[in-house]
Structures are given as C-alpha cells and as structure tokens.
Design goal:
It contains twelve helices and eight strands. The protein has about 260 residues and is of the alpha/beta class. It has one domain (about 5-260): Alpha/Beta hydrolase fold, catalytic domain (Rossmann fold), CATH 3.40.50. Helix 2 crosses helix 3 (about 95-105), helix 4 packs antiparallel against helix 5 (about 140-155) and helix 4 (about 125-140) packs antiparallel against helix 9 (about 180-190). The chain starts with a strand and ends in a 5-residue tail after the last helix.
C-alpha cells in the first residue's frame, strides 16, 4: 500500500482498476480494508481509490485533534496529490459526513455522491451512544470497544451466521493499533458534526442508502438528508444494520453501480 505526503502527515492508499475515479471513504475505524466486499466488483468498471484516514491503519498516527472538516480537507489533499479533478464519492457513516462536507464546500470535485448509513447532526440518541463509546475508550481502552463493535455494526442474524468470522475481525480490529487519543478525537469530531444548513446546496446527483434496523444512525437521518438534498434518491434496505455494505453486499453493490451508471436503482 503506497503512502503519500499530505499537509503535515501521510496517508496510505490503494488504487485498483481503471476508469473514472471512485473513492470509497470509510467510517469511524477509517481503514481501507473495510471495502473488501466492493473493490473487485467496482474496480471492474472504475478506478477505485481506498485509503486509511489519518490516525488509523497504515496512515500516520500523529493527529490527536480531529474534525470532519479536517478529514474532508485531507481527502481533498489526497485527490490533489493523485491528480484527481473530480470523482464519484461513496462514504459510509463518518465517510458520509466527509462526503457531505466535500460536496457542500467543493461541489466541483464531486461527480456523483453516495451517502451510506450516515447522519445529519448529533441528536440525543447519537450523543448518548458516542459519549458512551468515548467513555469506554477512556476507562477500558480498545479491547472492550472491539468486543462491542460488532454489536453496533451488525444485526443479530448476521452475527449468528458469521460468528467465527467476526471473532477474527475482533483480533485485528483497527482501533487496537490506533492510539486511544486518536480514537477519542475521532469520536469528538462526530459529536461536533452538523452540516444540515448546507445540504440544500449539494448539486451532485446523490443516492442515500440506509438500513431500517441501523442501530448507530437510524434511518430517519437518511430520510432527513434526502428531503434536504434537491433531487436525491433514497433507498432504505430491509435489514443489514449499520454495515449494510458488508451484510447486504450484493444488494448494495447493485444499487450503487446502477446509480453511478445512471440506471434504475
């Protein structure tokens, strides 16, 4: 995985396939490998870029204070370094917040936008959940959080069917190698995020995808985003939980590719 210098740090990234650039932006854990269920199929049609966000994975771990605006600037810097003028952006959860920010502040850089399992602002449910996760890191470190993480991401049917696989995931959880201060700083960034006033300015064709049983970002956030972005498309999947790009990968991939190719979703 090559590394590229951006601003005052470094980002690890991967490029797979050829064609129009398609950037996959991960959630709170921030690592490129999250998108394994998508890369092969997407790369058959696009130049797919994945990357580890700063403070995670193979990118530098120097950063301690984070904001979604800063994460969006680093994505923009990565695009500049790779000489990508504009790209399709698919962002999940935190990646969806980054996608919203990029599309609002730099509309010329976003061709088509897919927002997955993401949110509008920190409401009481979101605040209680992420303050509890923050406290878990402070008091217990990453090991306990790694045990709870699958319960946040996946619905019971997926956990029951993939128990051994999830156990292996826990052993190599990205947050185990990331500094606790970085994980806490990234949570603080989510708690501060609110781009509701800018959503109406998004001009990129936009698809919003959510699961009807998402524990972290309930689907009412997706409905609110869809109402705010002119001409956007909303797709609510039955089941799948927060990480529906993994738990409902075939359905997710089909919907995203159809949208990017301007076909019926």
């Amino acid at each position: 995985m090559p590394r590229i210098a951006i601003a005052d740090g470094e980002i690890h990234y991967e490029v797979t396939g050829e064609g129009h650039p398609l950037i996959l932006v991960s959630g709170l854990n921030g690592v490129a490998r999250y998108w394994q269920p998508q890369i092969a199929e997407f790369a058959a049609r696009y130049r797919v870029i994945t990357y580890d966000q700063r403070g995670t994975g193979g990118s530098d771990h120097q950063q301690r204070e984070f904001s979604v605006d800063q994460m969006a600037r680093e994505l923009l810097a990565l695009m500049d370094a790779l000489k990508i003028e504009h790209a399709h952006i698919v962002g999940l959860s935190t990646g969806g917040a980054i996608g919203q920010t990029l599309a609002i502040e730099h509309p010329e850089r976003v061709a088509r936008l897919v927002l997955v399992s993401t949110w509008t602002h920190c409401d009481p449910w979101f605040r209680r959940l992420f303050e509890a996760r923050r406290r878990m890191y402070e008091l217990c470190g990453p090991e306990l959080h790694a045990m709870f993480h699958p319960l946040f991401l996946y619905p019971p049917d997926y956990v029951n069917a993939h128990d051994a696989e999830i156990l292996e995931e826990q052993k190599r959880a990205p947050t185990k190698s990331a500094p606790v201060a970085a994980s806490i700083g990234r949570i603080d960034a989510l708690l501060a995020f609110d781009r509701r006033e800018g959503l109406a300015r998004i001009v990129a064709p936009t698809l919003i995808i959510a699961g009807d049983n998402d524990y972290i970002t309930p689907s009412y956030h997706a409905e609110a985003i869809s109402r705010a972005i002119p001409g956007s498309h909303l797709l609510i999947l039955h089941g799948g939980g927060h990480s529906l790009s993994k738990t409902r990968a075939a359905e997710f991939n089909h919907a995203v590719l159809n949208f990017l190719e301007e076909k019926n979703i």
